[in-house]
Amino acid sequence: MRIERRYTSAGQSPYATIPFRSAxxxxxxxxxxxxxxxxxxxxxxxxxxxxxxxxxxKYFRKAGVPARLKKVEENDVPSFLWRSIADEAALAxxxxxxxxxxxxSSKQVFDRLxxxxxxxxWKGGYFTSEEDAAAFxxxxxxxxxxxxxxxNSPQWFNTGLHWAYGIDGPSQGxxxxxxxxxxxxxxxxxxxxxxxxxxxxxxxxxDLVNEGGIMDLWVREARLFKYGSGTGSxxxxxxxxxxxxAGGGRSSGLMSFLKIGxxxxxxxxxxxxxxxxxxMVVVDVxxxxxxxxxxWKVKEEQKVAALVTGSKTVQxxxxxxxxxxxxxxGEGDSxxxxxxxxxxxxxxxxxxxxxxxxxxxxxxxxxAKQGYKDIQFDIYDTDWDSEAYLTVSGQNSNNSVSLTDxxxxxxxxxxxxxxxxxxxxxxxxTLKARDLWEKIGYAAWASADPGLHFNTTMNDWHTCKASGxxxxxxxxxxxxxxxxxxxxxxxxxxxxxYDRQTKAFDVAAYEHLCRLWTVVLEISVTMAQFPSKEIAExxxxxxxxxxxxxxxxxxxxxxxxxxxxxxxxxxxxxxTAIMTGVSYATSAEMAGELGPFxxxxxxASHMLRVIRNxxxxxxxxASGYEGLEVTPVPLDHGTLARLGGSATLMSERARIAWDxxxxxxxxxxxxxxxATVIAPTGTIGLVMDCDTTGIxxxxxxxxxxxxAGGGxxKIINGAVPDALRALGYRESEIAEIEAYAVGxxxxxxxPGVNHGSLKAKGFTQDKIDAIxxxxxxxxxxxxxxxxxxxxxxxxxxxxxxxxxxLNDMSFELLPFLGFSKAEIEAANVHVCGAxxxxxxPHLKTEHYxxxxxxxxxxxxxxxxxxxxxxxxMMAAAQPFISGAISKTINMPNDATVEDCKNAYMLxxxxxxxxxxxxxxxxxxxxxLNSALISDEEDEDDAVEAHYQQPMTARATxxxxxxxxxxVEKVVRExxxxxxxxxxxxxxxxxxxxxxxxxxxxxxDGRLGEIFIDMHKEGAAFRAxxxxxxxAVSLGLQYGVxxxxxxxxxxxxxxxxSGFVQGNQSIKNATSILDYVFRELAISYLGxxxxxxxxxxxxxxxxxxxxxxxxxxxxTVTPITSSPLASTGFRRGKPINFHAIPxxxxxxxxxxxxxxxxxxxxxxATAGATALKEEPESFGEPEMxxxxxxxxxxxxxxxxxxxxxIMKGYVGDSCGECxxxxxxxxxxxLKCNTCGSTTGCS
Length: 1241
Prior knowledge:
Elements: E1 20-28, E2 34-44, H1 49-59, E3 65-66, E4 69-71, E5 84-86, H2 88-92, E6 100-101, H3 106-123, H4 130-145, E7 149-151, H5 153-158, H6 161-165, E8 175-177, E9 184-186, E10 199-201, H7 214-226, E11 230-234, H8 254-269, E12 279-284, H9 290-326, E13 328-329, H10 342-353, H11 358-369, H12 387-391, E14 398-403, H13 405-413, E15 416-420, E16 427-432, H14 433-447, E17 451-454, H15 455-460, E18 472-473, E19 480-481, E20 485-493, E21 498-499, E22 504-505, H16 507-527, H17 533-542, E23 545-550, H18 552-558, H19 566-594, H20 600-618, H21 637-643, H22 646-668, H23 682-687, E24 702-706, E25 712-716, H24 719-726, H25 731-742, H26 755-760, H27 765-775, H28 787-790, H29 792-798, H30 813-816, H31 821-832, H32 867-877, E26 888-891, H33 897-909, E27 914-919, H34 939-948, H35 951-968, E28 985-990, E29 993-1001, E30 1007-1014, H36 1019-1037, H37 1042-1049, E31 1058-1061, E32 1068-1069, H38 1072-1085, H39 1127-1130, E33 1169-1170, H40 1180-1184, H41 1197-1207, E34 1222-1225, E35 1228-1231
Parallel strand pairs: 10-11, 11-12, 12-14, 14-17, 20-23, 26-27
Antiparallel strand pairs: 1-2, 3-6, 4-5, 7-20, 8-9, 10-20, 13-33, 15-16, 17-27, 18-19, 21-22, 24-25, 28-29, 28-31, 29-30, 31-32, 34-35
Helix pairs in contact: 3-4, 3-16, 7-8, 9-10, 9-11, 9-14, 9-35, 14-33, 16-19, 18-24, 19-21, 19-22, 19-32, 20-22, 21-22, 37-38
């Protein structure tokens, strides 16, 4: 083949025009510990810190690179392509520690990749002359260095290590087909033939232990997972549950084996290079076990919710039962007898009410009887890496159902659908197609799985129908072909071909890249080794490739076009059509020189029919397609013509490319059965500094850019200023719009909260400087005003923050200091920016769609791309792709099951091959920002309280609330108060207004009524408070738990509010109701977390260690008595006196020791008296007396998760570097810090 030079010159280094810089690459864990560090690396100057880090951490060979090399002469290879090995003689002269090391320059990586491809290309006869080989070598290195294109990760890992450095090792059980002889060969070396393929499809037979069977598949999968590749399989050949076995008996069914495979995959990946979703499970819609399969992940998510909620409920009640036993005085075992210990009886009833099993309750009482004072019962949370998710199955794969058009038409006509036995072929069950469709829609809504494969459409576009049907895909659903085949991918960075000055797209350069990289991927098949014989043979026979692109979302925004627009879709269609047309034309050109792929002859008619259909769509025709059940969306030439400029050229070149592809194919055949896919481009997207991956839109308008010295700073998405210029805005307007989105990063001139107001509150200059330092990267100022920035001593001593508040997740410093919500919000927008362009100065409303992202942006953003916009963008590109498109359809939290079904139905009607949905919050482990619970609370306060919670609490809130409501809903009669009752009156001054709280109690000390009176307050407000108190009292008497009122009304905000005088425990309140319910919670519920001063530290009646001699004598007959002091007045503390009615006989008393630890003075009665003891606490002064310093506090995982979600990330931590910087990437996730992905790219 002839290779044209476009970027380089013969005899000159391809790097001559590219400036390079020396850099340090460092990736840290969230706690600051270093994950990876490499100094003195050489990277192109234009590369960002993230791209440099990913290259250095992921793709540099870290060991075994010789410091001195020598060439190995080969007579049939040009000298510039001779491979290198270690120069042992030269190495011997070096100190031992300097002989081998790591790659240190990006040029080394580019050289080994391009050199290896060119070497094998020369040996395989791909170049007409030595000059063509040299041009190929140089052009590839230039393209890699300028971030125009990148191959998939296994190429970076493996390709060229043997060629460039002589690195080798023993065979890993791989195979290859010798390109000269066509014979299958078992590899003798691990690197001479690299393993460059990322995507695999593997077949599985209905056989337990033989080769190609079920257990063999787990071994084959393990070999792929170990090296970071992904695999998919269709399991529909496995017989259903209850089907007969050949040796007698019945099959355990498909699901039992899927669960084994899921466990095996999870175990391998937990220590390997991928974490999850590197596996695809596909099952046909007529399989007997399809209903169970569809519900699989729904039920597993329910199990997680049950584990989380149930564990917390059981722990709460177990501890309460234990406490009732321990904090008690009584003779013998009376403390453990619910008939004699009223507190224990009450806790047992509450535990039963919460459905805690009786044997667990009994176990706790027995435990206490043995002298134990605390019990360990683990609780679970919804974090992905928690025990809850590790306990359930189905979490290590993407699940898909393979649908035929027959099924979908049965759904439309409300027809019947048969499930068919695997061994007999007979109908095992008949059900309504719509019922199964409803099940699929609900499962996708509830758990984001299963996705769908539209199998009829997949096979209508199948180039090799004579060789068998397409049954499965790789994990991300972009590669779809025969079982036991593989695909290696590469993606072009579209934005690099757009000239912002001339506003033109360089179509010729794009075509040049598509041609060269089709050759690169084809050479990769020639040189590759594969993990099994079948894959090696079939990959050689069909030679499937996966050329694609990334950054179309960034390109469209830069051009000033909306992702959801006719113009955007037309451009995407044109670029895709050109790419695949050129790729197939290049494949036909190679076939002319080297022959078509071995399986072409028997499939020629099918392949040419598919190429003609591609060409028909490229010509923009609505009809004239051959053998298609569903008509595709043709290229929109009218919109391209209306756009003008380079769009007109694209329209013309798309037609020409497909005319050439068909003409050359009819003449020579094709070298490759497939040429293109659109992959998620996770890690390689970061290496190319792409704003967006694959065909995805952007996820945020404001990004957090990594600094070379560590840390981050906030910048506007690079496409935004270019888009604003393209839309005609002036530079001054653009600067104001940017400042609105990003903020000023300083409190100096901020409204409300600024340097002056902070100094007035007691802030010193050094503390203000510390805050200013962190504001540049802040997305909300409340996260900067924390104990890590200001120090605990300053908060507690200078600002008088109660020590217990420092670890309270809901505590915010600025409101505590007296700043109003409006002042904080105004300062927030000034400092941190809106992080959206909605409401920006100068920006016209009609231009908003240009800046729409996959999710709402910032705290105040409301706009996001519709479900249909994602599907229609895919539909515009799909007719020009050999394989399919990896993409997740984002749906808002309030989307319905009907919306899910409609999205799937639209996908089929627009001729997509596959689709997967992700509804916001459909997975407990990945809560996004939209889910809010607002029970009895005022809406504004509900939002505020919700964001104050840790993410794990947010995620489980729905599950827990539902369970809680079911448990607590008990229909009961009103419980009348006794005519003569105890209680107490608390007088206090809240914000300068006197408030009297009067309580009434039942005989057992429970709160039954409250009265609230205001002194000299307006008649209306005073009456409202009084009537409100009556309403609460009625609720209490009808069984509404006091806890519900406390949760509903604490932290409510209205005037009067402020400092509290006259109450020993409460010193500040945000409203009268906040004060009243804090007081009640402290007094009746022991909620000392709501007190500013712990009641155990107040007053003259704090209990000391009694001498244990002044006990009341025990009576012969049981005594009934009423306490003389109100439970609320005592705030739950034990008292040292009790009323005993006269006339009863008395017996000798015995000592009763409180099991809480210290002895107390008390009177024993016939029934044990429940006593409460406050735990001893150690503060900083006590800790300082010890011989070591307490470790510095770090933000908790929940706090980091909250921060990540507000920044636009999904909220999970990366399995490799631990940072909370994962973003959705196709059907997978990728880490923006270290570049690792949960898929196979």
